[in-house]
Amino acid sequence: MSRVISGAVGIPLVLGMVLYGSPLLFFFLVAAVVLVASYEYFAMIENIGVAAFPVEGGALSFLLLLNFYLDEKLPPIFSILLPVVLLTTWFIREKNVGTALDSIAYTLLGIFYIAGLGGFFLLLRDLDGGSGMIAFLLLIIWAGDAVAYYAGVSLGKRKLLPVVSPDKTVAGAVANVLATLLAATAAKLWFLEEVTLTHCLIAALICGTIGQLGDLAESLIKRNCRVKDSGSLIPGHGGVLDRIDSLLFAGPTFYLLAVVLGNMK
User: Fold this and answer.
1) CA 148 to CA 142: how far, in whole Å?
2) Ramachandran region of residue 120, left (φ > 0), alpha (ψ -120 to 50) or beta?
3) Average pLDDT of 164-180?
4) Collapsing DSSP states into helix, strand and coil, what is residue 94?
5) Confidence of residue 40 (pLDDT cuts 50, 70, 90)
6) Over the stretch 227-260, which tens digit does the pLDDT of each residue have?
7) How far apart (Å, rounded) are the C-alpha atoms in residues 195 and 213?
8) Phi/psi at 160 (nearest 5 deg)?
9) Distances (CA, A) of 10 to 21, 87, 115, 214, 259
10) Which of 3-7, 137-141, 178-182, 189-193 has the lowest mean pLDDT?
11) Residue 168 DSSP SS3
12) Which of 46, 68, 47 shows the shortest CA–CA distance to 57?
């Protein structure tokens, strides 16, 4: 029930901001989600004893998102600041040379994994019809995740990849893809009349599959950090990173498809 209530409140709010919010409002939505997810990531990393740089990582993540928002107007600045900030932070805080690479590498991973992949949603929104495409992507991924969860609980017997995620099943993975195809068809009939059904189904099949890899990638991080969820901010769902793990992989994939297929038209 907590999962249902959280979805009933959160989904309309997010879709409303995507479809009717200004570009600046959408930027702050993405930035807020990325920064909270980054905080959860660094908290997990701390659980295994790695002294990463969460404050500096968060600031650099925001700068990277700003780079996406300004249409790549800051690459030289970001390229210079990234190594300078992280190396300077290590020189000030740390004394053990043996842990330098761990701290810097885990911070870099967090920046590019969450902000680097999440920033593609800002590029996607700048495309012609970008708001509708983001709504389409959110709906197919959410539908796939929801159906996979309940199919896995009720029908799942054979484990998909137990060494990484003991709870994910083959039945759940298949149900996920089928749900994305159905959701894509519904979205086509609902608000994407100008997009061909073939393009919608291609995008759903590819992004639904890639999204599940994103889910497994976050599961690998959580298993390595010995935590069940990235956080507890969303009742019934865990943390913010738990809710966007599939989208982090599906977003860049969908952006490339939209460009290749002519903005999905």
Assistant:
1) 10
2) alpha
3) 88
4) coil
5) very high
6) 888 877 776 667 899 999 999 999 999 999 988 7
7) 26
8) -80, -55
9) 15, 39, 21, 21, 29
10) 3-7
11) strand
12) 46
Phi, psi of 161 (to 5 degrees): -150, 75
159, β-bridge pairs: 169
Q: How many residues does the chain have?
A: 265
Give the percent of the chain with pLDDT over 90.
Answer: 47
| Beta strands 165-169; 159-161: pairing state | antiparallel
- HEC string of 181-236 equals HHHHHHHHHHHCCCCCHHHHHHHHHHHHHHHHHHHHHHHHHHHHHCCCCCCCCECC
Could you tell me the pLDDT band of residue 156, with boundaries at 50, 70 and 90? low
Backbone angles phi, psi at 196, to 5 degrees: -70, 150
Contact 223, 164 (CB under 8 A): yes
- Here the tokens at position 229 are 């969820």
Other residues' Cβ atoms within 10 Å of the Cβ of residue 105? 13
CA distance linking residue 51 with residue 40, whole number of Å: 14
The enclosing H or E element of 166 equals strand 165-169
Check: CB of residue 147 under 8 Å from CB of residue 177. Answer: no
Coil vs helix vs strand at 157: coil
Distance of CA 156 to the CA centre of its chain: 25
pTM over 0.85: yes
Q: Give me 196's structure tokens.
A: 């061909």
More confident residue, 5 or 187: 187
CA 147 to chain centre: 18
Q: Six-digit token pair at 58?
A: 């968060």
